[in-house]
Write a structure and sequence with these properties.
The protein has 438 residues and is mainly alpha-helical. The chain folds into two domains: 70-270 and 381-400, Orthogonal Bundle (Citrate Synthase, domain 1), CATH 1.10.580.10; 272-372, Cytochrome p450-Terp, domain 2. The protein is built from 17 helices and five strands. It has a three-stranded antiparallel beta sheet. A two-stranded antiparallel sheet has the order 1-2. Bound molecules: carboxymethyl coenzyme *A. Carboxymethyl coenzyme *A (CMC) binds at residues 236, 267-269, 271, 295, 301-308, 356, 358, 361-363.
Amino acid sequence: MSANTLTITDNRTGKQYEVPIENDTIKAMDLRQIKTSDDDFGLMTYDPAFMNTASCKSRITFIDGDKGILEYRGYPIDQLAEKSTYLEVAYLLLHGELPEEAQLKEWTRNITYHTFINENIKTVMDGFHYNAHPMGMFEATLGALSTFYPDAKQIFDVECRRKQIYRLVAKVPTIAAFAYRHRIGMQYAYPDNDLGYEGNFLNMMFKTTELKYKPNPVLERALSVLFILHADHEQNCSTNAMRSIGSAQTDPFSSLAGAAAALYGPLHGGANEMVLRMLKEIGSKDKVPDYIKRVKAGEFRLMGFGHRVYKNYDPRARIIKQVADEVFEVTGKDPMLEIALELERIALEDEYFVKRRLYPNVDFYSGIIYQAMRFPVDMFPVLFAIPRTSGWLAQWVEMLEDPDQKIARPRQIYLGHKTRDYVPITGRKLPATASANA
Ligand code: CMC
């Protein structure tokens, strides 16, 4: 018997099976042979939230949640945050290696020259209500972009795919900034190709009457670091959505719109917005103990705390805390910081949080920095989506090139009615327990 196998005894039949172990996993399909009779479908696994199921093999991002390690293509996140730029990291995620000088120049040029969006997209955006949430506008506009680029459907043409990647990485800041300007009723500020990726985004967000917008270099650099930290995070909810939608061979604009929709949720990329709303609701440092009491009583969750994978301090949160100091030097301290620090201090000592290994995650401090930089709270999920675009695209390409992948299609355990005959409306009687939504 090989050592790299698992022997399973089915106590229903007494039969034994030996299934191979590869990369510390067994293939779920190897369980299908375990049957009680010839017409039995075979054994499946039940894992509703993918708690213990690997859906792909990946070479992009590595996380060790117990040790608090995060690496992109093998490079530790703290080194990238300190030494790299967001565009270089996006290249790394998408190409597998850090670019040489000429490659970075070419990549930057291509991104810079795809930042403009079709004028008709502005008309699409103008159709949104004056107070539409920017993330809703962002998602919808991404979906709308697919109609402007029908060539994007050629997902197996490598050259064509590359072009869509330039377009998407380049245009997401433009769409994000236009969504913001629409919401506040200000005319759109066009991209400025003389500026870098982050500086141009700040220009499109905040330019008013000046002829040339000059981004503050400290804020530009802080944004680059925040973008690096948010660029990828292996198989999270929105990346899983990107892969799942993409597995149907959907074009990348539509797939990305779906991924952004997943990110919008308050348990995922919407958490940074919820953190700020929570800090506002708490209002002052002295109210923190009472708030923690209510969290422990199960009234609500402490937003920006806890993670499915990290059972240690989220390494991104640690780096963000350092960035905060640099930003506050320029902008002045945000009063919310004091409340956040007190929340963290009390939570990290409290048995409820210690026992469940709940630590601050990336969203806990990012919102405070964004607020200090003058981004409104409802832009926070959009600020997450801009850099995550490169991660989503890297994961999408990896999925398309993986011969193991097919259209994503989970199984279910059917617990509903067995076959029954149609009853005409006059003869129907609902059982007392049946609900209208069933
Ligand atoms: N506040 C209070 N209790 C919590 C929290 C929290 N933030 N997170 C988890 N718990 C408790 C939960 O009630 C449960 O307790 P019990 O065992 O008594 O039922 C236990 O911890 C395990 O929680 P879980 O829901 O099984 O954990 P999960 O892995 O399914 O959820 C999570 C992970 C991130 C959705 C969750 O921790 C959460 O809701 N956090 C708040 C939202 C948030 O900050 N999300 C951003 C995540 S990081 C960025 C990103 O991925 O987008």
